[in-house]
Amino acid sequence: MNFARPPVLVVGAGPAGLVAALTLLQNGIAVRIIEKDPNPRIGQRGPGIWSRSFEVFNFLNIPEVYDLGKPFPEIHSYKPGTWEYATEYLVPHLKPTPAIPFHAANALGQHLLDMILRRHLEKFSCSVEMGTELRSVEQSDEGVTAVLAKNDILETFDTKWVIGADGAKGVTRKQLGLTFLGETRDDIRMVMGDIRLKAVCLDRAYWHRFGNFERGTALRPTDEIGEDGWQFSIFAHDLDVTKVAQSEEMIFNIISSYVHTEITFNKLVWASEWKANIRMVNKLSEGRGFVVGDAAHIHSPAGGQGLNSAIQDAFNLGWKLALVEKGLADKSLLETYNSERLPVISEMLEMTTTILSQQIEGNKFTVPQRPILSMLGINCRFSNIVLDEFAIPGKPINAYDVLDEANLEAGDRAPDAPNMLHVGRREPEVKTLFSLYRPWYHTVLVFAPSHGDATPILGALEAYDTSVVRSAVVLPSSASVTSVTSPADFVLVDEEGHAYSAYLMEAGQMKVFVIRPDGVVGAIVHGAEGVKRYFSKIFLDA
Questions:
Q1: Which of 179, 423, 472, 535 fits as disulfide partner to 542, beta carbons 3.0 to 4.6 Å?
Q2: CA dihedral 31, 37, 40, 42 (to 10 degrees)
Q3: How many CA atoms lie within 13 A of 273 on its CB side?
């Protein structure tokens, strides 16, 4: 096999595939990414991005995703045949906190999200090969042979790894021999898409809903499509949704039948039918092949977890695959992609299916949203590669859980903390903890009463490759440090106490937190020996 070629083939260039490719590229791993469709996808599709996913984009240094997202508007649900409405909210409007800088869900259409991610790919001289599809995959102990097709011309491509991000109908999962068990529900069908129209009485400050979950329509304003752009949904159990999705005239007529005002239709931008398929794979990998996102699990749009879970799949896998490909970690590390993510997906499917059932039974567009949907409580406390010397053993663990800021264990999401004074530089500067975390290295946070107390741990860290392990000493606000010579990458004074509060530390305590490249707390330990124990689970010869 010729391994001068990129060692990773990513199949599918939706958000999951693009995040997988970007994570690997930022780790210095070359990638080839292909997409079956000849042109980039259009459409808002699932536009909801939750807090945990914004953190992923922050770690990938893609601030545009948060900057361009818009809050979900207040919903006006109208009584049939009237303009009398009840007010509802899809998601709570939460303000940022020091530990949670991205506290609210925002809307960003997937066509714009894809565009942003492709632009970041190009910074690494990598572009999506459109109109190129995967036909087959064969594996050996040394690598993968993929047969690709473009314009009916076949190509044999030798690589080391393949990541399937090619959706529920994709080829990769089938080629890897993974099952996709679940159900297709006939009690809910709809047509969704993007449309341009102007209507008297439709204020673009609100999301408008007419009828009910059994038969109705919804219009959410979005300037991404145009100043007259809307994302629409049509719910109709007794309509041929396949036929409706293919007919601009039928879509116009159905919307007009619910919205009793003068409407000027400009154009139908995009439309697709949707049926409730609830399925997941038996495992997320086979040999040198992996699946992420819709290729691995599909669920109802209730709760808006699909896009977000896909992004988080890719981010969990990316740093691990990079370490293995660099020869710094054993291939067994890749087994934790399956063991960490599969329980999350299983519990998530159960939750989103419950929400869908409540919508159907109550015949309502919206049901009270749960804090769990922010995904900030997703954890891998049960993982065999996390280490917590302080946790109480034997406690029940839910992988898909509600965030509990009064409790922090290894396997949890690492909190942020702003206004950290970076000392030891000619000009001290203010940083956030999140600004330290990146997908190509672990960050060792040493909370210590003084810099001298951290010295033994910093000495132990000198044994590790500085390209994949970085360190920061976090001192309490009481520390009087203006200048210090340190082997640590950062010496931070927690002037406002945000870090000590979020990490549940007292000023006189000594504790070490190892933050993984995916922003998860990999270890909470007493000192140098605990750090060594943790890294022995990650690195070869550690």
A1: 535
A2: -140
A3: 16
Lowest pLDDT segment from 249-263, 395-409, 423-437, 517-531 = 423-437
With the CA atoms of 175, 176, 181 and 184 taken in that order, what torsion angle do they form, in degrees rounded to the nearest 10? -30
Tokens of 49: 């991005």
List the one residue out of 432, 434, 412 whose CA is nearest residue 422: 432
Angle at 468 between CA 463 and CA 471, to 5 degrees: 70
Q: Where are the beta strands (DSSP E) in 98-214?
A: 106-107, 129-130, 132-139, 144-150, 153-159, 161-164, 180-199, 207-211
DSSP H or E segment with residue 420: strand 420-423
Q: Is 148 within 8 Å of 134 (Cβ atoms)?
A: yes
Residue type, 535: F
pLDDT over threshold 90, residue 238: no
Whether the CB-CB separation of 43 and 270 falls below 8 Å is answered with: yes
The pairing of strands 429-431 and 420-423 is: antiparallel
Residue with tokens 């939460």: 94
Residue with tokens 């264990």: 409
Q: What is the dihedral of CA 433, 436, 439, 445, to 10 degrees?
A: -70
What does the pLDDT average to over 405-415? 97
Radius of gyration of the chain (CA): 25
Q: What is the CB neighbour count within 10 angstroms for residue 426?
A: 5
Around 343, how many Cα atoms within 13 Å sit in the side-chain half-sphere? 14
Which residues lie below 8 Å from residue 394, measured CB to CB, with a gap of 6+?
A: none
Q: How far is residue 516's CA from residue 409's CA, in Å, rounded to a whole number? A: 13
E strand or H helix at 266, and its extent?
strand 263-281
Cβ-based neighbour number of residue 403 at 10 Å:
21
Q: What is the rounded distance in angstroms from the CA atom of residue 354 to the CA atom of residue 68?
A: 31
Any bridge partners for residue 136, and if so which?
147
Report the share of the chain in percent with pLDDT over 70: 97
φ/ψ bin of 253: left (φ > 0), alpha (ψ from -120 to 50), beta (otherwise): alpha
- Look at residue 542 and give its three-state secondary structure: coil
Q: What is the pLDDT of residue 4?
A: 63
> What six digits make up the tokens of 531?
């750090």
**Cβ-proximal residues to 406 (8 Å cutoff; 6+ apart), any chain:** 504
Q: % helix / strand / coil in the chain, to the nearest 5? A: 25, 30, 45
The one-letter code for the residue type at 111 is H
Rounded to two decimals, the pTM is: 0.96
The single-letter code of the amino acid at 420 is: M
The helix or strand, by DSSP H or E, that contains position 24, with its residue range, turns out to be: helix 15-26
Which residues share a beta bridge with 429? 422
How many Å apart are CA 494 and CA 505, to the nearest integer?
Answer: 11
1 falls in which pLDDT band (50, 70, 90)? very low
Rounded CA gap, 449 and 277, in Å? 54
Largest CA distance in the chain: 74
Apex CA 382: angle with CA 379 and CA 387, to 5°?
Answer: 95
Query: Cα separation of 194 and 272, whole Å?
Result: 10
